[in-house]
Amino acid sequence: MQDVFIAGYSDKLSARPGETITFSVSSKATSDFTATLYRSISADPNPKGPGIVEEDASRYFKPASFASRYQSFTPGSFAQSASDLRANIESDLVIKFWFMPTILLAHDQTLLSWGDISISLDQQGIITAKLANGILLSSTSSVKIHNWYSLEIKLSASGATTLGLQHLANLETCLGATKEGDPVTGKGELFPISIKAPIRIAASFRDAPSCFNGKIEAPEILADGKLIAKWDFSNGISSLSVKTKTGPDLFLKNAPTRGVTGRKWDATEFCWRHKPEHYAAIAFHDDDIYDFDWDSDFELKIPNDMPSGIYVMRIAADGHYDAMPFFVCPTLGKRQANLCVLISTFTYTIYGNHARPDFAPSWLERITAWNAYPHNPSRFKHYGLSTYNNHTDGSGICHASHKRVLFNLRPGYSTFGQSTCSGLRHFQADSHLISWLHNQQIDYDIITDDELDRDGLAAIAGYKAVMTGTHPEYHTRKTLDALEEYRDSGGGLIYLGGNGFYWRIARHEEDESLLEIRRSEDGIRAWAAEPGEYYNAFDGNYGGLWRRNGRPPQQLVGIGFTAQGNFVSMPYHRTCFDSEFDWVFEGIEDKIIGDFGFSGHGAAGFELDRRDEKLDQGMKITTLAQSFDEKNQFVLVPEEVLTHLTNLSGGPEADVKRADMVYFKTAKGGQVFATGSITFCGSLPWNEYDNNISTLLGNVVHKFTKG
């Protein structure tokens, strides 16, 4: 697999003054690479739009050169002992564990490796054990994927050397084993055995590919009848390590999945916290990769006078480049503006390296024509994919981290390469809003999901308004709590997206960069969690939609996800003519608003949110404008559909495939404005920012921050 010429990542996506961000780089160049800092204003490469706009920020980081070096990374998760497992074995050795393979591959998959001992699964489903002194054992029957088996290997000075393979459903049946090599007849030929080496479960100590795809449970090792190592994976399910009373502890490399059903699971309990013995397995994958673990090359300590904003560290060598965005937040409690822009770093990370199924090589032509960011995750899948993709074995990827190269978190990256518009999402689409703020000369601070989750309400307290970007989809309980407290204490919340506040995620307490999503039961899903695996391993809470967790988006911002289409858009139609709300439409004579834009060619598109009185807790909400799916380009989301004839609205499907632009106040003077469309911000730069969407948002921001 070919690697990109130069690439890098930062240890964190955001920082405050006084904090340090470190950058790790891999470069194939023989010469030094350069690093230059810019402030990012626009990340849209479309030559018909703002283009990529960046301001020199060298006063905060003097351009510098650093020695190039290639840094590798190895996909695949496994468990490894934190220290050597030592054994001086005189007469007997027993290794046993349970396992469930999930795919057979063209190469061997290692189940366990310890010194000269290696146990693997081949492409035919045969288990082979390579033991001390050249002993080789192989099962006489092959295993089937998605079936549980017990494996027990015995070496004895008496000559009784066996490989016992038993199917969970028929434990009395041994699939048998064969032995190759010289007979084991006495102590002198095989024993004593001396091993001093770390142990790996689900991988070998050789280079990939050798990692196991599947679940492993209850490994243990006995020497001369004495238990020397035993690991119970039902203990500490939320941890990135496995503590044990017998033998060395294990650390988990590349975050294999815990909180998964084991051999004892019988569908009588669906939460691992209630019956951890039913969840005593760990699921490993050969493509897990959540931390490249590269050595750092340089760092930036955020100066006290560095304005809050979006910055890009550009690195270059021999005509190749990469660009690493990061976000500078103000010192906690010392805001620099009345307006706060909430950057959806959790959503960026969850989507990190999304390899779209509709990617086509033809996209590269437009990338070249636009001088856009050149790399796409679909061409570099070994860099690790997103939670919108699947593992090698077909299971859904449920972990995400930014401690790796994320191609789609780059200025100039285009998500939809076949689109006739800019085709942007997430970071790049949010730059339409950032460029608008600069064009309108509106001061703002940046706060990201990271700070909101860590600091709660304190992260945004004191701002007159908090504004989201285009797609604040993924949230923890802490981030939702903070936004709700802010709103209910009198703050102004401006929601400029669609499909927001949708999925519940968990953040790992031992590594804050690591996020978890369980796509349980409902919602627009790239994959579906397996039965019994709906609860997050990281925090033990039920995963899936916030709506299914009793906190639908309507309770926070008055609207929630209702319909999705291709990357197409519609305009809004003004529906409110009450003079009380004339301030929203001041300077706008048009009844049709936003029939233009760089995202889907309209302000209401791709993913749409609407009001639902059953879910909004009786708030007095005013609908200001609506879009209408006149061309039948959108479909209802699954949670809205009951049968092929009925939906939860109780009315015609066409009536609920819309975006609602709404406004309401809270009891203590808080106020909310919401657009209900992912593509709204894509209309802001149209006609050099002179348009009715720009005017409307300007009215709202002025009302919220100065009115």
Describe the structure.
The chain is mostly beta strands. The protein has two domains: 78-284, Jelly Rolls (Sandwich); 310-705, no CATH class. It contains nine helices and 44 strands. The protein has a nine-stranded antiparallel beta sheet, with no helix packed on it. A hairpin with a 2-residue loop joins strand 15 (162-167) and strand 16. Helix 5 packs across helix 6 (477-488). The longest helix has 14 residues, at 426-439. It is globular and about 95 Å long. The chain starts with 5 loop residues before the first strand and ends with a helix.
How big a fraction of the residues is strand?
Answer: 25-35%
Roughly what is the average pLDDT, rounded to an integer?
Answer: 93
> How many domain units?
2
Report, as a whole number of angstroms, the end-to-end distance.
57 Å
Shape field? globular
**Major β-sheet profile:** 9 strands, antiparallel
Fraction in helix:
10-25%
The quaternary structure here is: single chain
Q: Count the beta strands.
A: 44
Q: Poorly predicted ranges (pLDDT <50, ≥5 residues)?
A: 171-188
The strand order across the widest sheet is 17-13-12-11-10-19-7-23-22
Number of helices: 9
Compute the CA-based radius of gyration.
28 Å
What class do helices, strands and sheet pairing give? mainly beta
